[in-house]
């Protein structure tokens, strides 16, 4: 058996150029499959990361639409959510699968610092906002329960706000004015960049109580624009969804048909965002798969040429005592070696591409070990399949016909 | 005192071989009967087209007769499977061809070891046997040379070394000197005589009378039939 591999290696080496060209077909096919699947996976991961920036295990409650004189407003057009809804959902007896609730009231306002100003999203919320939204404080501190209870005029700003208002200077300890109210800056949020919905670094967070008493322009000062709910775990997300829906339906005195709120989950966002990527990935991988098939046909073609060209060698080997199965084995091993080497080289090229490509595209390329091993196995199988027919043709040759041919 | 009856190692009884080329049938062998005893050195001589190459192919189990019986060491060859025939070619017969038939990409000793690979002999031993066989044909200093780096005579000696390496009872040489100059022809014929003296059975196919003269006896073939008037070359040396 070892001898068969040695012979195959010699045959491949003695037709170096041809072997390389044959392998190239498999190589390009495998590299293309690995890269397209890797790109698809990378894009999915990117979307997932983006959505996870919003916070993990997150449900988002928005006010429902209103119907005024038969004209239905869009989602969020009514201020049907209030702080009392947040209190209801925070109750573990009502909703055991909800870990934390962050009510948010926000509006776009001008924040003035000295002689500069910046219009940003001013967010009134509670202490839990930081963990529910999966954020951290880069400088200073976040608002405390005490700040909320006392309705202190303190503010934690995002990095974009910080650099727009204070440049390189540290903003902590500075004061700003919003709608004629003075706020002290107590901290700066970490930088996380844009999510799919907004620039998460361009906002200013203040205690919900301060927002309600100083900033809010709503008729009901305790009304809120959104509620972020964190479920206790990924698996309890749907239970939390049910509990929130039931609790709010009951407390708002509505039925399933005229609900005045809506709840969306990250999962639904994720599904929408990844399904398009997935379609594209499948399409591209299909094209790459076809190129792999063409590569396999190339191997078969070359093996057939090789059998015809080495007909005298086959005849001689038979005269010297090679059995038909020994000849068949030799050509099969040769074809599968071509396939396997092409596969390994293709994998190498794919990995190199996965490292290099993200520098040119703003897109990560993820190669899973499973896909890599699969690709090499597929290349080997293609080699074997492509070798079967030429090998059995070689094995069937009558020694005398093979020897006699010129 | 009569000589002890020797069993024929090769026995052909009324062997015919017909080729169908298109709708034309060519009878290459028209009923050949021939016995070759163990230790014999037979030259099969005839002009081109006489059927002598076909005879050689049938003797070497490379081709099968259309009708008639061929017994090799007592066994009817037509009853053997492909794999069994491969084994017979491997263990019992050593071939020497007119075109040498060496693999150009392999060094001399690697060419010589080929039959041993199919006999399933381990590499270290193959190397030893191949080197010994090359030494026997006087090419001990050429073991690592490729066929392209050797003269025609040397290449044919490599081919003889390959035929010898499995220690076969029968050596079949098909026009072994056909592509050689007179000097190399002498070398190769001397080598064959030596092997005959060592007790091997040799069948030599040729169209040259001088070459046939080296054999112990000559069988003439004409139009697919054995010429009845058998000529005797030199006396049978093995007593």
Q: What report would you give on this structure?
A:
Chain A has 406 residues and is α+β, with helices and mostly antiparallel strands. Chain A is 54% helix and 18% strand. Chain A has helices at residues 2-14, 16-52, 83-90, 129-132, 145-150, 159-166, 208-215, 237-251, 266-309, 311-319, 324-356, 369-396, 399-404; strands spanning 58-63, 67-68, 71-72, 98-113, 116-125, 137-140, 154-157, 175-178, 181-189, 203-207, 226-231, 261-265. In chain A, the strands form 2 sheets. Chain A has a 6-stranded mixed β-barrel, surrounded by 4 helices. The longest helix of chain A is centred in the C-terminal third of the chain and has 44 residues, at 266-309. The relative contact order of chain A is 0.18. Chain B has 239 residues and is α/β, with parallel strands linked by helices. Helix content of chain B is 32%, strand content 28%. In chain B, helix 3 crosses helix 4 (123-136), helix 3 packs parallel to helix 5 and helix 4 (123-136) crosses helix 5 (152-164). Chain B is globular. The model of chain B is unreliable at 233-239 (pLDDT under 50).
Q: How would you concisely characterize the structure shown here?
A:
The complex is a heterodimer of chains A (about 400) and B (about 240). Chain A is α+β, with helices and mostly antiparallel strands.
Distance between the termini of chain A: 30 Å
How helix-rich are the residues of chain B, as a percent range?
25-40%
| Largest sheet data of chain A | 6 strands, mixed, barrel
Q: Order of strands across the biggest sheet of chain A?
A: 4-5-10-7-9-8
Low-confidence stretches of chain B: 233-239
The arrangement of helices and strands of chain A along the chain is: HHEEEHEEHEHEHEEEHEHEHHHHH
Key words describing this protein structure:
heterodimer; A: 406 residues; alpha+beta; 2 domains; two-stranded antiparallel ribbon; elongated; B: 239 residues; alpha/beta; Rossmann fold; seven-stranded mixed β-sheet; four-stranded antiparallel β-sheet; 28% strand; globular; disordered C terminus
């Amino acid at each position: 058996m070892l001898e068969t591999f040695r012979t195959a290696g010699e045959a491949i080496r003695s037709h170096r150029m041809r072997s390389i060209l044959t392998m190239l077909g498999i190589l390009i096919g495998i590299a293309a499959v690995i890269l397209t699947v890797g790109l698809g996976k990378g894009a999915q991961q990117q979307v997932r990361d983006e959505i996870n920036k919003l916070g993990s295990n997150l449900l988002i409650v928005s006010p429902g639409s209103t119907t005024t004189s038969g004209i239905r407003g869009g989602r969020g057009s009514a201020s049907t959510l209030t702080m009392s809804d947040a209190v209801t959902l925070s109750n573990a007896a009502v909703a055991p699968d909800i870990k934390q609730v962050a009510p948010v009231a926000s509006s776009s306002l001008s924040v003035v610092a000295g002689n500069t100003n910046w219009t940003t999203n001013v967010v009134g919320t509670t202490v839990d906002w930081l963990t529910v939204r999966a954020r951290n404080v880069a400088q200073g501190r976040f608002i405390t329960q005490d700040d909320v209870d006392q309705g202190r005029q303190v503010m934690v700003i995002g990095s974009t706000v910080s650099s727009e208002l204070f440049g390189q200077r540290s903003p902590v300890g500075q004061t700003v004015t919003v709608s004629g109210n003075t706020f002290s800056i107590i901290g700066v949020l970490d930088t996380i960049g844009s999510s799919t919905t907004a620039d998460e670094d361009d906002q200013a967070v203040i205690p919900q109580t301060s927002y309600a008493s100083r900033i809010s322009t709503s008729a009901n000062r305790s009304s809120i624009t959104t509620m972020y709910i964190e479920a206790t775990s990924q698996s309890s997300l749907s239970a939390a969804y049910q509990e929130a829906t039931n609790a709010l339906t009951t407390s708002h005195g509505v039925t399933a048909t005229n609900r005045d709120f809506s709840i969306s989950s990250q999962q639904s966002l994720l599904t929408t965002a990844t399904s398009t990527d997935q379609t594209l990935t499948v399409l591209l991988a299909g094209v790459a798969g076809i190129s792999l098939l063409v590569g396999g046909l190339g191997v078969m073609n070359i093996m057939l040429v090789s059998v015809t060209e080495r007909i005298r060698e086959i005849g001689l080997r038979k005269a010297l005592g090679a059995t038909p199965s020994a000849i068949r084995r030799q050509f099969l091993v040769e074809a599968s070696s071509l396939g396997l080497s092409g596969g390994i080289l293709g994998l190498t090229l794919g990995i190199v591409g996965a490292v290099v490509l993200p520098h040119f595209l703003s897109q990560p390329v993820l190669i899973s070990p499973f896909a890599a091993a699969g690709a090499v196995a597929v290349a080997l199988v293609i080699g074997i399949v492509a070798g079967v027919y030429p090998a059995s043709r070689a094995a069937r040759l009558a020694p005398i016909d093979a020897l006699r041919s010129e | 005192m009569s000589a002890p009856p020797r069993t024929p190692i090769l026995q052909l009884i009324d062997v015919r071989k017909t080729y169908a080329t298109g709708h034309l049938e060519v009878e290459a062998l028209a009923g050949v009967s021939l016995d070759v005893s163990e230790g014999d050195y037979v030259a099969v001589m005839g002009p081109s087209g006489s059927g002598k190459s076909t005879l050689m192919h049938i003797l070497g189990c490379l081709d099968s007769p259309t009708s008639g019986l061929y017994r090799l060491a007592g066994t009817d060859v037509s009853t053997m499977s492909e794999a069994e025939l491969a084994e017979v070619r491997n263990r019992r017969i050593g071939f020497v061809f007119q075109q040498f038939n060496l693999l150009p990409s392999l060094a001399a000793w690697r060419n010589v070891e080929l039959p041993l690979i199919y006999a399933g002999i381990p590499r270290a031993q193959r190397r030893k046997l191949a080197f010994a066989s090359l030494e026997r044909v006087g090419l001990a200093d050429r073991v690592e040379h490729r066929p392209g780096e050797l003269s025609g005579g040397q290449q044919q000696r490599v081919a003889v070394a390959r035929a010898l390496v499995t220690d076969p009872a029968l050596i079949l040489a098909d026009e072994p000197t056909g592509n050689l100059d007179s000097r190399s022809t002498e070398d190769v014929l001397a080598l064959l005589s030596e092997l005959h003296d060592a007790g091997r059975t040799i069948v030599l196919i040729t169209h040259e009378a001088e070459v046939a003269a080296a054999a112990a006896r000559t069988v003439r073939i004409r139009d697919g039939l054995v010429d009845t008037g058998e000529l005797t070359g030199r006396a049978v040396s093995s007593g």
